[in-house]
From TrEMBL:
Cellular component terms per the entry's GO annotation: cytosol
Family note: Belongs to the esterase D family.
Entries under Gene3D superfamilies matching the protein: alpha/beta hydrolase
InterPro entries: AB_hydrolase_fold, Esterase-like, S-formylglutathione_hydrol
Top-level class of the enzyme under EC nomenclature: hydrolase
Domain of life of the organism encoding this protein: Bacteria
Keyword line: Hydrolase, Serine esterase
Catalytic activity: S-formylglutathione + H2O = formate + glutathione + H(+)
Pfam families: Esterase (PF00756)
Protein name stated in the entry: S-formylglutathione hydrolase
Function: Serine hydrolase involved in the detoxification of formaldehyde.
SUPFAM superfamilies: alpha/beta-Hydrolases
Organism: Solimonas fluminis
């Protein structure tokens, strides 16, 4: 792992790293905020998965999370949204598929399958690397995200609840099998057999196997993607059927942007800190 930058921030360090990824077969970048407490002890790590078109920088620059993370002693880790630099046919034609749109799943179809393995990357490889190279506690991991990344966070925790002690989401794509963004991505990454898509759909997973803890989800009611792509009601229905403890909060006037995330980031950090406390 190479350290690309390191800058002082709220008594800790804002860093960017790159490494050769086994999951994607490419060089991947991630950013990490190391709170002051990480100077002398292992701290809980909270992973953020960003949305379509974002990079490992977006959350760290726009969410305004570092000040409170420093107070709470939380490490923040933000990865990229797909492999880059492969130049696969069709990987850069659409902003909602391919580069910047890896959907945090493991593709099964050519030409995506050997590289678009963001499920394995975020589920296994990145935490193992972070815990080996940075002062992150291996038994206190949280995950959250926005939109495509909110979907990724929910799916990652629902698929492997024993590995994630806390989870939350901002405006997640709650039921990707039922909406255009999800159908476009899943049909290409996972193939035409829709019976295989459910393993990567947060609402379908939650209905079958609830996560053993409360999940916090915030959604803006002025979000332009709400009706067509996000469907938080599907998550609420799934939680009702499975007994999942879900705190779904709907906010008048808030849209899909990082202004919305910045407005509620403190609640998410406190939610995670509470569940990740040693
Ligand atoms: N088409 C636009 C918009 C892309 C966009 O809105 N991306 C969202 C995530 S959408 C779901 O995953 C985002 O977080 N954008 C970054 C931001 O800073 O707001 C485009 O091409 O930009």
């Amino acid at each position: 792992m190479k350290e690309l930058s390191r800058q002082r921030c709220h008594g800790g360090w804002q860093c960017v790293y790159s490494h050769a990824s086994e999951s994607t077969g490419t060089e991947m970048r991630f950013s990490a905020y190391l709170p002051p407490q990480a100077g002398h002890a292992k701290v809980p790590a909270l992973y953020f998965l960003a949305g379509l078109t974002c990079t490992e920088e977006t959350f760290m620059i726009k969410a305004g999370a570092q000040r409170l993370a420093a107070e709470l002693g939380l490490m923040l880790v933000a990865c990229d949204t797909s492999p880059r630099g492969l130049d696969l046919p069709g990987d850069a034609e659409h902003w909602d598929f391919g580069v910047g749109a890896g959907f945090y799943l493991d593709a099964t179809e050519a030409p995506w399958a050997p590289h678009y393995r963001m499920g394995r990357y975020i589920g296994e490889e990145l935490p193992a690397l972070v815990e080996a190279q940075l002062p992150a506690a291996a038994d206190r991991r949280g995950i959250f995200g926005h939109s495509m990344g909110g979907h990724g966070a929910l799916v990652t925790a629902l698929r492997q609840p024993q590995r994630w002690q806390s989870v939350s989401a901002f405006a997640p794509i709650a039921n990707p099998v039922a909406v255009p963004w999800g159908q476009k991505a899943f049909s290409r990454y996972l193939g035409a057999d829709t019976s295989r898509w459910g393993e990567w759909d947060a609402s379908l997973l939650m209905e079958r196997r609830p996560y053993p803890g409360t999940i916090l989800v915030d959604q803006g009611l002025a979000d332009a993607f709400l009706e067509r792509e996000l469907h938080p009601r599907a998550l609420q229905d799934a939680a009702g059927r499975s007994g999942q403890s879900l705190q779904l909060r709907l906010h008048e006037g808030y849209d899909h942007s990082y202004w919305f995330i910045q407005s509620f980031i403190a609640d998410h950090l406190r939610h995670h800190a509470g569940q990740l406390a040693a």
